[in-house]
Amino acid sequence: MTGWHALLGAEIPIVTAVTRLDFLSRRDSAAAVQRPDVGPSYSWTDHLRGQVEPLDLEESLELLDLGVGVARRAYDAQHRGIHAARRAGASWERIGAVLGTTPLTAWNGHQRWIEEQVELFELTGRNGLDDVAAVEALHLAGERPVGLGHVTRTVHQED
Question: Per the confidence metrics, is the pTM higher than 0.85?
Protein backbone atom coordinates (compact mmCIF):
# COMPACT_ATOMS: atom_id res chain seq x y z
CA MET A 1 0.00 0.00 0.00
CA THR A 2 1.37 3.42 -0.88
CA GLY A 3 -1.03 5.58 1.16
CA TRP A 4 -0.26 8.64 3.24
CA HIS A 5 3.13 7.48 4.45
CA ALA A 6 4.08 6.07 1.05
CA LEU A 7 6.91 3.62 0.80
CA LEU A 8 9.21 3.13 3.78
CA GLY A 9 6.97 5.22 6.04
CA ALA A 10 8.03 8.58 4.59
CA GLU A 11 5.29 11.20 4.49
CA ILE A 12 4.32 12.28 0.98
CA PRO A 13 3.60 15.92 0.06
CA ILE A 14 0.00 17.05 0.60
CA VAL A 15 -0.44 17.91 -3.09
CA THR A 16 0.55 14.39 -4.08
CA ALA A 17 -1.75 12.89 -1.45
CA VAL A 18 -4.74 14.98 -2.57
CA THR A 19 -4.10 14.14 -6.23
CA ARG A 20 -3.92 10.42 -5.50
CA LEU A 21 -6.99 10.64 -3.22
CA ASP A 22 -8.92 12.38 -6.00
CA PHE A 23 -7.83 9.79 -8.57
CA LEU A 24 -8.82 6.82 -6.40
CA SER A 25 -12.12 8.47 -5.39
CA ARG A 26 -13.07 9.16 -9.00
CA ARG A 27 -12.07 5.70 -10.10
CA ASP A 28 -14.10 4.13 -7.30
CA SER A 29 -17.12 6.28 -8.17
CA ALA A 30 -16.86 5.45 -11.88
CA ALA A 31 -16.63 1.73 -11.15
CA ALA A 32 -19.66 1.83 -8.86
CA VAL A 33 -22.00 3.58 -11.32
CA GLN A 34 -24.04 1.35 -13.59
CA ARG A 35 -24.45 2.68 -17.10
CA PRO A 36 -28.13 3.46 -17.76
CA ASP A 37 -29.80 2.00 -20.84
CA VAL A 38 -30.81 5.31 -22.33
CA GLY A 39 -29.91 7.01 -25.57
CA PRO A 40 -26.41 7.98 -26.54
CA SER A 41 -24.53 10.39 -24.33
CA TYR A 42 -21.91 12.86 -25.39
CA SER A 43 -20.06 13.30 -22.09
CA TRP A 44 -16.38 12.48 -22.37
CA THR A 45 -16.57 10.54 -19.07
CA ASP A 46 -19.49 8.30 -20.01
CA HIS A 47 -17.23 5.76 -21.66
CA LEU A 48 -15.60 5.14 -18.25
CA ARG A 49 -18.80 4.29 -16.37
CA GLY A 50 -19.13 0.58 -15.80
CA GLN A 51 -15.86 -0.10 -17.60
CA VAL A 52 -13.44 0.83 -14.84
CA GLU A 53 -12.12 -1.89 -12.59
CA PRO A 54 -13.24 -1.47 -8.98
CA LEU A 55 -10.56 -0.72 -6.42
CA ASP A 56 -8.89 -3.79 -5.00
CA LEU A 57 -8.41 -4.26 -1.26
CA GLU A 58 -5.04 -2.47 -1.13
CA GLU A 59 -6.33 0.47 -3.17
CA SER A 60 -9.45 0.70 -0.99
CA LEU A 61 -7.30 0.84 2.13
CA GLU A 62 -5.05 3.39 0.44
CA LEU A 63 -8.12 5.54 -0.31
CA LEU A 64 -9.10 5.34 3.36
CA ASP A 65 -5.55 6.10 4.54
CA LEU A 66 -5.21 9.08 2.21
CA GLY A 67 -8.61 10.44 3.26
CA VAL A 68 -7.66 10.27 6.93
CA GLY A 69 -4.25 11.82 6.31
CA VAL A 70 -5.58 14.69 4.21
CA ALA A 71 -8.37 15.39 6.72
CA ARG A 72 -5.84 15.52 9.56
CA ARG A 73 -3.61 17.89 7.61
CA ALA A 74 -6.60 20.12 6.78
CA TYR A 75 -7.68 20.13 10.45
CA ASP A 76 -4.17 21.09 11.52
CA ALA A 77 -3.97 23.79 8.83
CA GLN A 78 -7.29 25.24 10.00
CA HIS A 79 -5.96 25.69 13.52
CA ARG A 80 -2.65 27.06 12.32
CA GLY A 81 -4.75 29.56 10.36
CA ILE A 82 -6.65 30.45 13.53
CA HIS A 83 -3.34 30.90 15.32
CA ALA A 84 -2.08 33.20 12.53
CA ALA A 85 -5.34 35.16 12.48
CA ARG A 86 -5.20 35.74 16.25
CA ARG A 87 -1.56 36.78 15.99
CA ALA A 88 -2.62 39.31 13.32
CA GLY A 89 -5.34 40.66 15.63
CA ALA A 90 -8.49 38.85 14.46
CA SER A 91 -11.34 38.65 16.96
CA TRP A 92 -13.13 35.42 17.77
CA GLU A 93 -16.21 36.95 16.13
CA ARG A 94 -14.35 37.22 12.80
CA ILE A 95 -12.81 33.75 13.16
CA GLY A 96 -16.20 32.25 14.01
CA ALA A 97 -17.71 33.92 10.96
CA VAL A 98 -15.02 32.45 8.68
CA LEU A 99 -15.62 29.00 10.19
CA GLY A 100 -19.40 29.39 9.96
CA THR A 101 -19.86 29.02 13.69
CA THR A 102 -20.11 31.06 16.85
CA PRO A 103 -17.10 32.71 18.46
CA LEU A 104 -17.47 30.45 21.49
CA THR A 105 -17.56 27.27 19.41
CA ALA A 106 -14.50 28.43 17.45
CA TRP A 107 -12.63 29.22 20.68
CA ASN A 108 -13.59 25.86 22.25
CA GLY A 109 -12.46 23.97 19.14
CA HIS A 110 -9.13 25.77 19.17
CA GLN A 111 -8.65 24.95 22.86
CA ARG A 112 -9.21 21.26 22.05
CA TRP A 113 -6.65 21.49 19.24
CA ILE A 114 -4.07 22.96 21.62
CA GLU A 115 -4.73 20.11 24.08
CA GLU A 116 -4.37 17.56 21.27
CA GLN A 117 -1.07 19.14 20.23
CA VAL A 118 0.25 18.89 23.80
CA GLU A 119 -0.76 15.21 23.94
CA LEU A 120 0.92 14.63 20.58
CA PHE A 121 4.15 16.17 21.85
CA GLU A 122 3.99 14.01 24.98
CA LEU A 123 3.64 10.90 22.78
CA THR A 124 6.24 11.74 20.13
CA GLY A 125 8.62 14.17 21.82
CA ARG A 126 8.87 16.17 18.59
CA ASN A 127 5.46 16.75 16.95
CA GLY A 128 2.80 18.96 18.46
CA LEU A 129 3.30 21.68 21.07
CA ASP A 130 5.72 21.53 23.97
CA ASP A 131 4.84 23.27 27.26
CA VAL A 132 6.29 26.64 26.22
CA ALA A 133 4.53 26.62 22.83
CA ALA A 134 1.27 25.50 24.44
CA VAL A 135 1.36 28.38 26.95
CA GLU A 136 2.05 30.80 24.08
CA ALA A 137 -0.86 29.35 22.08
CA LEU A 138 -3.21 29.61 25.07
CA HIS A 139 -2.12 33.19 25.70
CA LEU A 140 -2.66 34.08 22.04
CA ALA A 141 -6.12 32.45 22.06
CA GLY A 142 -7.10 34.75 24.89
CA GLU A 143 -9.99 34.53 27.28
CA ARG A 144 -13.11 32.53 26.58
CA PRO A 145 -15.62 34.71 24.72
CA VAL A 146 -18.21 35.65 27.33
CA GLY A 147 -21.87 35.52 26.48
CA LEU A 148 -21.21 34.63 22.86
CA GLY A 149 -22.52 31.57 21.16
CA HIS A 150 -25.22 30.57 23.55
CA VAL A 151 -28.76 31.68 24.25
CA THR A 152 -29.63 33.17 27.60
CA ARG A 153 -33.07 32.47 28.93
CA THR A 154 -35.05 34.94 30.90
CA VAL A 155 -37.20 33.50 33.62
CA HIS A 156 -40.42 35.40 34.23
CA GLN A 157 -41.69 35.18 37.75
CA GLU A 158 -45.39 35.40 38.25
CA ASP A 159 -46.67 38.00 40.68
Answer: no
